[in-house]
Amino acid sequence: MKNNRHSDIQFKSPQEIKAYQEARLAEELVYLDLHSKFYHQMFQKEKIDIAKIKTIEDLRHLPVTTKTDLQLHNEEFICVNREEIIDYVTTSGTLGDPVTVALTESDLDRLAYNEYLSFTTTGCTNRDIMQLMVTLDRRFMAGLAYYMGARELGAGVVRVGNGIPELQWDTIHRIQPTFCMAIPFFLTKLVEYAETHNIDYKNCSIKKAICIGESLRNPDFTLNTMGRRIHEKWPELLLLSTYASTEMQSSFTECPACQGGHLQPELIIVEFLDDNNQPVAEGEAGEVTITTLGVRGMPLLRFKTGDLCYHHTTPCSCGRNTIRLSSVLGRKGQMIKYKGTTLYPPALYDILDNIPGVKNYVIEVYTNELGTDEIVIRVGTDTRTEAFSKQIKDLFRAKVRVAPTIQFESVEYISKIQMPQMCRKAIKFIDLR
pLDDT tens digit string along 232-283? Predict the structure, then answer.
């Protein structure tokens, strides 16, 4: 990987970027045919001549790969001998059990390089110090990637992990980090702790937060409710998003223009597909579908992530000419059809995050006796009155035209549901269908 780096490709013309990616695609198809049992069998079964797949547009002649494929045929995706695998991680699966992803030495180098590119996209340099507010353990790829990427950048790193606001603020005071990796919701907890303990957080050393796991922006790039809540409390903090998945082993990260996450053309090809696996036009929501470049352990071809996004091809003010992704509109598998209205969980989160008195919540969706979707929102609050329930329902009617069932619970009870044992991030959506 280190010998094939071409970081300036993101600043080339769209035509040069496309030609570069198509040359890399031809190499990847040969590698898959030679080393991947799953894809070799697929090419044979579908009578595919990979030599005829010359352009990104030609990809539509190939079948897509799903997370169910990964789960059912996990071993068949591995392209190397077992002794070449040096790291194993897992990600959630569609069939209940986690999906295993195996990485080689070169894959870890690629992972570090990806985050190096992400950090340079955000404007970070080797003069920065990163406070890592996510876990490095629990088979979690992202925390390891951020740590290695910061090392590749030459930046300092302080590994605090998730939670424990007191330790986070003690570290900020002692080490003076300049940026952090964090989940947006946790930033609100940091602010609450600082206000309670008279910490002058607005003048602390951290000036930038690169956020994962939750959206900060609406599709038009304005801050959503969570983003506004953080910005109004801490306007000195530059909020940037990075979007990734374990399977793609790459990320799409915002530059300071905050106009979407940038594609890294060296590492991944991205398509945006409709329900029939056909490309959608710019301005239409499509499922993010990726083809990895340079992954040796478990490379993927036309892998459907399940995430729905808009994409943008206009040049960015930062000088990059790469495709940019909007925030995730929702996961395809989490689409809710409720009383004639199509909803995705992020739209519901945005409403709940904007209601004073709602401390935390879990959204449950199940199939009722009529065979249709039903929504119950369990709200952690100290205000358990009929009037507050009506207020919440009225806000839902105003925003999305329908009102779910509201059940009040203690804040402590919801916290336990959100963070069960072995969980790496807070659960806010439970699908019981």
Answer: 999 999 999 999 989 999 999 999 999 999 999 999 999 999 999 999 999 9
Of 104, 15, 71, nearest to 292 by C-alpha is 104
Element (H, E) at 383: none
| pTM for this predicted structure | 0.82
pLDDT tens-digit series, residues 320-377: 999 999 999 888 878 888 887 878 888 899 899 889 999 999 999 998 887 888 999 9
Return d(Cα 16, Cα 10) in angstroms, integer. Answer: 9
Which residue from 397, 389, 403, 400 is spatially nearest to 358, judged by alpha carbons?
A: 389
What is the spatial distance between Cα 356 and Cα 97, in angstroms, rounded to a whole number? 37
Residue 19's pLDDT is what?
97
List, as one string, the DSSP characters of 186-231. Answer: HHHHHHHHHHHTT--GGGSS--EEEE-SS--B-TTSSB-HHHHHHH
Per DSSP, 279 falls in state B
Are residues 43 and 50 in contact, defined by beta-carbon separation less than 8 angstroms? yes
Distance in angstroms (rounded) separating the CA atoms of residues 228 and 225: 5
What gap in Å lies between CA 431 and CA 424, rounded to an integer?
18
Work out whether the CA dihedral 117, 121, 126, 128 comes out positive or negative: negative
Q: Residue 299 in contact with residue 31, Cβ under 8 Å?
A: yes
Strand partners, 49: none
Beta bridge partners of 65: 303
What is the three-class DSSP state of 60?
helix
Phi, psi of 342 (to 5 degrees): -90, 125
Query: Is the separation of the CB atoms in 106 and 296 below 8 Å?
Result: yes
Cβ atoms within 10 Å of 256's Cβ, excluding its own = 13
Contact 422, 138 (CB under 8 A): yes
**Cβ atoms of 129 and 175 closer than 8 Å:** yes
Residue 432 to residues 313, 317, 349, 378, Cα–Cα distance (Å): 38, 44, 18, 14
pLDDT band at 3 (very low <50, low <70, confident <90, very high): low
